[in-house]
Amino acid sequence: MKRFFSGLLTVLMLVVLLAAWILLPWFAVLAVVVAIALWLFATRGGRLAREATKIGIAGLPQRWGASSVIVIGIAGVVGVLVAMLAMGEGFKATLDRTGDDSTAIILRAGSQAETNSVITRDQSPLISSLPGIARGADGKALASPELSQVVNLPTKADGTDANVQFRGVGPAGWAIRPQLKIVEGRRFNPGLREIVIGKGAQRQFRGLEVGQQLKLANQMWTVVGVFEAKDSHDSELWTDADVLGPAYQRNAFQSVTVKLAGKSGFKQLKAALAGDPRLKLDVDTTRNYYGKQSEGLTKLIKILGTVIGAIMAIGAVFGALNSMYAAVAGRAREIATLRALGFRGLPVVTAVMLETMLLALLGGLLGAAIAWIVFNGYTVSTLGNNFSQVVFQFKVSPELAWTGLKWALGIGLVGGLFPALRAARLPVTEALRSA
Question: MacB-like periplasmic core domain location, by residue (predicted)?
Fold first, then answer.
C-alpha cells in the first residue's frame, strides 16, 4: 500500500507539473530556456551535459524505431489538439467578424438572442426616431427591422436536410452592413419573393444557384443573387422582411439593427431606450452580441479538445517512457563509461532529458505542421445559437501552434524524467559487466 500511494503521489505531481508547464506564458517559457542555456554554456556541469547530449543524439539513427514512436505519438497528440482548438477559434473568429462597435442590435428586454425576441411593428418607427442612430443621405434613420426563420435545405454532402437561417431585412440592411458585397447576380427587389444567398450557404446547400427557384412556406422564391460578407451572414438567405413576415404568418420583428451616430451614439441610444417606457428593449453593440453568441460553443470545443488531448497525451507519455527506458537499457555500457570518466548524475540526467525533449520538439513541430496543412482554412458548418447552420473555417493560428508545442515539450519532460533518473542511478560496475 505504501508503494501504491507513493506511485499515486508521483503521478499526481507529474500531472500538476505538466499542467503548470502548459499554463506558463511565453515569457516564462523563454526565461526557463535562457536559464538552461546559461547553465549549459557557463558551468562545468552544463558543459559535461552538453557533451553527453551530443553523444546521445549521434546515436539516434541507430535507435530510429524507438525514436519514431515518440515523435509520431506526440505528433498525433499535437495534431488532434491543435485541430480541435482551431475549430473553436474559427467559429469564434467568424462570429467576431460579424459585428463591430459602429452598429448596434436592439432586442426585447431580457432576450439573449434573436430567436426569443419580439419587437412589435408599432415599436419600429419609435426606435427609428431615437437619438444616437445615424441617418442616411435621405435623412432617414439607418435602422433595419429584421426577423429570421429557420428553414430546411438539402446539403451538398449527402442530401440530408439541415437548418439554414432565412433572414428578412429592412431597406437599410445593406447600408448598415457595407461589408456585404454582391458577387453574382443582384440584390432582391422589395415586395417580391426574391432571395439573395450567402456564399457559405451556397457552398453548403443544394439548389442555390442564381436563377433557380425554392419552395419555402408553400411559395416559390427566386434566387437572384449571391453575396459575400466573410462573417456569419455568409451562412444565411436574405429577403425583404415585409415579404418574409406574411409568408410565415409573422406579425412582428425579432430585432432592429442600427448604424450608430459617432462614438457617443451608443450611449445616447441606450439612454433614450431606458428613458422611454413604451420601449422595454435592450441594446448592445453587434460586436458584443455576436461575441457572446460564440462563447458557449467555443468553450465546449476547447474543453473537448483539452480532454481528448490529455487522454492522448497520457498514451504518448507511456510511449515515451517505454522508448526511453529501452534506450537507456540499450545504452547501459555507454552511460556507465561516461560515469566512469567523471560524468556525474546531473549531466547524465540532463543529457537524457534533452534528448527526449528534442524528440518531443520534432513531434510537436510535425503535429502542428500537419494540423496547419490539413485543417487551416478547412470549411465546415455547425449549429449556432439560432439552431441554424453557421459555415466557418478552421483557423490554425500561431498561438494554437505554440500551445501544441508546449504540450509536446511537456509530454517529453514527463516521459523522459524517470528514464533519466534511472540512467543517473545506474551502477557503473554492474552496467559494465552486463554489457
Answer: 69-273
pTM for this prediction: 0.76
Range from 53-67, 180-194, 334-348 that averages highest in pLDDT: 180-194
Residue type, 32: V
Q: What residues are paired with 104 via a beta bridge?
A: 258, 285
Phi, psi at 105, each rounded to 5°:
-120, 135
Per-position DSSP letters for 189-248, written without gaps between them: PTTS-EEEEEHHHHHHBSS-STT-EEEETTEEEEEEEEEE-SSGGGGEEEEEHHHHHHHT
Average pLDDT in the 308-337 region?
A: 72
Task: Answer for the pair 280, 109: CB distance below 8 angstroms, yes or no.
Answer: yes
**Dihedral angle computed from the Cα positions of residues 164, 165, 167 and 173, in that order, rounded to the nearest 10 degrees:** -100
Least Cα distance to 282 among 44, 67, 123, 85 occurs for 123
Q: Which of 315, 359, 429, 353 is nearest to 81 (CA)?
A: 315
The pLDDT of residue 257 is 94
Q: Interhelix angle for 44-58 vs 332-340, to 10°?
A: 150
Residue showing cell 429577403: 239
Task: Measure Cα distances from 246 to 123, 126, 220 in Å.
Answer: 18, 22, 14
Q: What is the dihedral of CA 63, 68, 69, 72, to 10 degrees?
A: 170
pLDDT in tens, 348-389: 778 888 888 888 899 999 999 999 999 888 877 776 555 566
Residue pair 256/124 in contact (Cβ under 8 Å)? The answer is yes
The candidate with the shortest Cα–Cα distance to 382, out of 297, 270, 259, 261, is 297
| CA distances, 286 to each of 7, 81, 127, 262, 385 (Å) | 53, 31, 17, 15, 15
- The letter for the amino acid at 410 is G
CA dist 189 and 213 (Å) reads 15
Q: What is the average per-residue pLDDT within 244-259?
A: 93
- pLDDT at residue 249 greater than cutoff 80: yes
Rg (CA), the chain: 30
Which residues fall within 8 angstroms of residue 431, CB to CB, at 6 or more apart? 332, 333, 335, 336
* Strand positions, DSSP E, 261-313: 281-285
Q: What is the pLDDT of residues 90-100, one digit of tens each?
A: 888 888 888 88
Helix, coil or strand: residue 143: strand
Statement: residue 212 has pLDDT above 90 = yes
| 10 pLDDT more than 70 | no
Question: DSSP secondary structure string, 102-137?
Answer: TEEEEEETT-SSGGG--EETTHHHHHHTSTTB-B-T
